[in-house]
Amino acid sequence: MRAKLLSIGLGQSMDIVQPREEILASSDISVIIAIHDSPKVTRRCLESVEKYGANAQIILVDDGSRLQETIDIVHEYQERNGWPVIRHDKALGHSRSCEEAAQPATKPYLCFLNSDTVLTPYTFGGVKEAFESDPKIAVVGPSTSRSIPKQTIRRAECCRNYWTNNQIYAFAKKYILKQRPRSWVDLVAVGGFAFFIRRSIWEEMGGFDSNLPDYGNESELCRRLSRRGYRIIWTKNSYVHHFGQRSYGQVMTLADINLKRLRAKDYIERKMHQQGDYRRY
Asked: pTM to 2 decimals?
């Protein structure tokens, strides 16, 4: 009932026209999507990318999917759009998949996008504007429905598993148009569900830490970037919907996920302490 009330005014059949500036901004971004089964959310993700990815470079990684439905979905979107697909017979994990797909990327900015997300017509413009405002901005994260608390919009979080894609698009439009220009917040780290980073800085840093195959990789990279004087920004002028724990998380228990997170956090703290960084995140 609460989700239904919070969805008033978001027409399910509403078709949102993507602003021209968003289409132009997408031309400078390589979107990398690591996929590991979860066909229902994978289809919703790729549907949104096809609709609003516009001129972005799209690179898919099928990281050891076992369900034929997932394999067929990836093939369907590959055939229709000409998107390149990297396939793994055995799952290597999110970090290694992203690193491999980043190698052929050619755009100035990379977006590591989880497959349990939905792109919106207001994804790219705010991100590119932040990057272009300051060369010291290395990483940008959008507002969302499920991530670290500061990036999470409460209304969207309550409805994140209830809304259709069209309702998500309509919410994104309402939310973004209410924001002031350059509504940016400096953070220690941003969520990894839609992780935008300058390609030149990604290459300079050598990618993710090889000891972190999945959880904690973005946080650790942000810590390294901060030590070098780079900025990590959350922009309220971009929105990407995130279901949360609906991709790789579907093949692990909640206890397994929490254990991986705790181990990653402990590893990062020990590593930073050894390097003289005593801040906690």
From this structure: 0.90
